[in-house]
Design brief:
The protein is of the alpha/beta class. The chain has helices at residues 3-41, 48-64, 69-95, 115-125, 139-147, 167-175, 210-215, 217-223, 234-244, 255-259, 310-320, 353-365, 385-391, and strands at residues 103-109, 130-136, 153-160, 164-165, 179-187, 191-194, 205-208, 227-230, 249-253, 264-267, 277-284, 296-304, 325-333, 336-347, 366-376. Bound molecules: the ligand C=C(O[C@@H]1C=C(C(=O)O)C=C[C@H]1O)C(=O)O.
């Protein structure tokens, strides 16, 4: 292909990409109109049957124009997830009149480019109000900022699919009066970031947050003799490498974050597990109402009485009320050696009868129980049946 022919094809691709964006924006606008109807008529946000039907049809249509089913499925899962999350945000706003602020002052760990920063951007991009970023040095500082009304929200990483729970954050939640008002999961894609083009073999010093080192331990073992420097956040690690401008130092962080500091990725997918995601809590001083049309989760902390089977008894309460537990974590209680505080997440809305019954029963069974929050669940599990059906048909 000659240079001019290449230019012409690229021009056409550019035009099509712009058209795709226009169409995506129009689709989003229409799904927002659907959300308004759902608010008016009290209809659930998610309609899995409708999703199945449209995906099934699209996979078949895609095949007719030479697009493979996996590709079509992936693209539309992303589109539908976006539409569901936007609608949920609209319903949540409607259920909490007067709670929207012109400025959302949000405290998070690190600075521009940290994973918490990217999660913060993602969560607040769906919400009204201007985002005011307040990067902090520690989880304690983040929580204090909201407690002292210097910030309105905090975004806190709570668990990661590779390295597990973030104990420091759990411990902060034990002592605070703040409420969990939201959750989100964000893919964590670690890359090796450098300030100038260099080979991996040249790297002598590596900067990263301890959680990141834990998630990339296999890669570190392969690297061998490299000095590891732990930093307060991924953003600090990237800043250090950017300031040093040397070809023998690197940071581990996201490629998107690194680009904010002029860093380039020389290797990607460094995490031990391919599916590396972090889950974040969004916390605030006041709890929120979660509309019943939106899937909700509730998080409680409790300490059980010291007798055999006390935890089993407590968990049976969830089973008896048909509540699906999605997470159980335990942490030591400061000052009471060998006693544990249990953190439980389950699917359910605090406004709903079964959740209220369960909380009342748990209060009677436990020594201490506190609801940390009820919030919209942001895990939009993709529909799978359509893809499977379409794949088995011609
Ligand atoms: C837009 C709607 O809401 C949700 C999103 C859908 C979509 O993006 O196509 C489909 C079904 C619902 O789960 C709808 O109900 O039509």
């Amino acid at each position: 292909m000659s240079d001019t022919a290449l230019d012409a094809v690229r021009k056409r691709i550019t035009e099509l990409d712009s058209q795709l964006l226009t169409m995506l924006a129009e689709r989003r606008q229409l799904t927002n109109e659907v959300a308004e109807t759902k608010i008016r008529h009290d209809i659930p946000v998610r309609d899995v049957k409708r999703e199945e039907q449209l995906l099934f049809r699209l996979i078949k249509e895609g095949k007719n124009v030479g697009l493979d089913p996996h590709y079509v499925t992936q693209v539309f899962h992303v589109i539908i997830e976006d539409s569901v999350l936007n609608q949920q945000a609209m319903l949540a706003e409607h259920a909490n009149p007067g709670s929207t602020l012109p400025l959302n002052r949000v405290a998070f760990l690190g600075d521009k480019g940290s994973y918490s920063y990217l999660a913060t951007q993602k969560y607040f991009s769906r919400r009204p109000g201007e985002l005011v970023e307040m990067g902090c040095q520690s989880f304690a500082e983040i929580v204090q900022k909201v407690e002292k009304s210097e910030a309105d929200y905090a975004v806190l990483p709570i668990e990661n699919t590779t390295s597990g729970s973030i104990n420091e954050v759990y411990d902060q939640l034990q002592h605070t009066q703040l409420s969990i008002i939201g959750e989100l999961t964000h893919p964590i894609r670690h890359s090796l970031l450098v300030s100038q083009d260099t080979a991996i073999a040249n790297i002598k010093t590596l900067y990263a947050h301890p959680q990141v080192f834990a998630q990339c331990s296999h890669f570190l073992a392969e690297l061998g003799n490299v000095e590891v420097k732990t930093m307060e956040s991924t953003a600090h690690a990237m800043m250090a490498v950017s300031e040093l401008q040397r070809d023998d130092v690197a940071a581990i962080g996201s490629e998107a974050g690194g680009s904010l500091y002029g860093l380039m990725a020389i290797k990607s997918n460094l995490a031990n597990q391919k599916e590396n995601h972090s889950r974040f809590f969004v916390v605030s001083r006041d709890p929120v109402n979660v509309p019943l049309q939106v899937p909700a989760k509730t998080t409680v902390i409790m300490s059980t009485v010291q007798k055999p089977g006390a935890l089993v008894e407590a968990l049976t309460v969830l089973k008896d009320n048909n509540l699906n537990m999605t997470k159980l974590e335990s942490r030591p209680i400061t000052g009471n050696p060998w006693e544990e505080m249990f953190y439980i997440d389950f699917e359910g809305n605090l406004e709903d009868g079964p959740v209220q019954t369960a909380v009342e029963s748990l209060k009677k069974l436990t020594r201490y129980l506190k609801v940390l929050g009820c919030y919209p669940s942001e895990e939009v599990s993709p529909t799978k049946v359509a893809a499977a059906k379409a794949l088995t048909q011609d």
